[in-house]
What we know:
The chain is α/β, with parallel strands linked by helices. The protein has helices spanning about 10-25, 55-60, 70-85, 100-110, 120-135, 160-170, 175-180, 230-245, 255-260, and strands at about 1-5, 25-35, 65-70, 90, 110-115, 140-150, 180, 195-200, 210-215, 220-225, 250. The chain folds into two domains: about 1-115 and about 230-260, 3-Layer(aba) Sandwich (Rossmann fold); about 120-225, Dihydrodipicolinate Reductase, domain 2. It has a six-stranded parallel β-sheet, with helices on both faces. NADP nicotinamide-adenine-dinucleotide phosphate (NAP) binds near residues 13, 35, 70 and 95.
Amino acid sequence: MIDLCVLGPGGRMGQQVCDLAIASDSVRLASAVERKGAPAVGSVIASSSISIGDALPSGLSQAQVYIDFTSPAATAEAAHQAIAHKTAAVVGTTGLDSPCQKALDELSNVAPVFVAANFSPGVALLLHLAKTAAAALGSEYDLEVVEMHHRNKVDAPSGTALALGEALAEGRGLNLEAARESNRDGQVGPRRQGEIGMFAVRGGDIVGEHTAFLIGDEERIEIAHRAQKRSVFAAGALRAARWVVTQPPGRYSMSDLLGF
Ligand SMILES: NC(=O)c1ccc[n+]([C@@H]2O[C@H](COP(=O)([O-])OP(=O)(O)OC[C@H]3O[C@@H](n4cnc5c(N)ncnc54)[C@H](OP(=O)(O)O)[C@@H]3O)[C@@H](O)[C@H]2O)c1
């Protein structure tokens, strides 16, 4: 049995992770930590005896691994605190900035750290297929990424869209930062050679949809993934938690877990 701490248990993803952990026979929900002052602090998670706390050190000290679907600031703070406890980390928060990546790197010197912008096995395959397609088809096929998410998503493009852009760029031998175009508005002129367009649609309760387009003069290929339920990400995060606690300190990703 693996003892788990869930960060952000009141959030959309945190709730899914708690529900699956409570139903699991290989993971035990040991603690759950929310932001100080959050309304959920002090409440008991349904079907468990776990009370939601706001003290990270105490929550982390009760667990072998924590799962984090929160915000970049909370992710950096948790990584700093986890160093003292050598707690393994599974991080699904997206929009991670460089201070956050630095904190995760520091934690990875003493504990295994698994980071994925998307925990669905289908998306891992999508990235693999996109890279292969971009390499196979060559520069006469223009590359674009479109993603769609629910109206409450706060970052754009999504972490998965950026990963998809990276996969296309790697396949084509491009640098994503230089190639990326997310702003077509007004007299933008013709498409640049080697550009990778990335666009975000927001609305309703869409869980997450990503499409890579490879567009030639006479044909178009679309490689798409549609998540139907958030539980696909929560199940992937729990699978990553079970696996990562068996690994030595270091950084890990879905390709390490799935072998793509
Ligand atoms: N990797 C994947 O497969 C995947 C899948 C889906 C989503 N995501 C990402 O996961 C993140 C969360 O998404 P979501 O839809 O679950 O968002 P959400 O519903 O807003 O949940 C975030 C939760 O984290 C809490 N939180 C904020 N600061 C905290 C802190 N310092 N300590 C503990 N908890 C804290 C929030 O509390 P308050 O509301 O009180 O601030 C909230 O309960 C986003 O970055 C999203 O893009 C990743």
